[in-house]
């Protein structure tokens, strides 16, 4: 049963609601930061790099982005709103293209970029924390090339 839902808010109300969504210090970000800090892993936030990374391990040259399922079109949970569909499709696809561009730019500067979905943190914070630890271990290994 696929019923099309209509928005109960006016365009102005919806615009105001959407504009108030936080871009940094979201619950998934802070949950991950607290878990990493509890493990003794020290990082920087609000570090001046392209893409405004959420978590930066400077000495390991590791960057962690926490991507929201809606804003970054998660293949599992990313869903376009029913209203103003063309606008949202264009906007969210631009976000995905920008994410790829920023990842490439940072990697070309020698950074390792790890992107995690907000749902990964919500579903299994321990696994995401372990993943970050593994990336940090790899970064500290001497180059065998």
Major β-sheet annotation: 3 strands, mixed
Mean pLDDT: 88
Query: Could you tell me how far the N terminus lies from the C terminus, measured between alpha carbons in angstroms?
Result: 57 Å
Count of domain modules: 1
Secondary-structure arrangement, i.e. CATH architecture:
3-Layer(aba) Sandwich
- Characterize the overall form: elongated
Content of β-strand: 5-15%
* Helix/strand order, N-terminal first: HHEEHEHH
Question: By helix and strand content, what is the structural category?
Answer: mainly alpha
Low-confidence blocks of residues? none
Rg from Cα = 18 Å
State the CATH superfamily name. VSR Endonuclease
> How many DSSP E strands?
3
Count the helices. How many? 5
In the sheet with the most strands, the strands line up as 1-2-3
Q: Which secondary structure elements does this structure contain, and how are they paired or packed?
A:
Layout: H1 11-19, H2 27-38, E1 55-57, E2 62-67, H3 85-108, E3 112-117, H4 118-123, H5 125-140
Parallel strand pairs: 2-3
Antiparallel strand pairs: 1-2
């Amino acid at each position: 049963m696929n019923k099309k839902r209509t928005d109960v808010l006016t365009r102005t109300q919806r615009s105001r609601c959407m504009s108030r969504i936080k871009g940094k210090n979201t619950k998934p970000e802070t949950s991950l930061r607290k878990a990493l800090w509890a493990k003794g892993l020290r990082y920087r936030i609000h570090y001046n790099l392209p893409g405004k990374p959420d978590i930066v391990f400077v000495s390991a040259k590791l960057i962690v982005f926490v991507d929201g399922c809606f804003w970054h079109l998660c293949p599992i949970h990313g869903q376009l709103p029913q209203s103003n569909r063309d606008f949202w499709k264009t906007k969210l696809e631009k976000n995905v293209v920008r994410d790829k561009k920023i990842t490439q730019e940072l990697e070309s500067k020698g950074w390792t970029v790890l992107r995690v979905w907000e749902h990964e943190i919500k579903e299994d914070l321990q696994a995401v924390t372990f993943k970050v630890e593994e990336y940090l271990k790899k970064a500290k290994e001497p180059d065998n090339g």
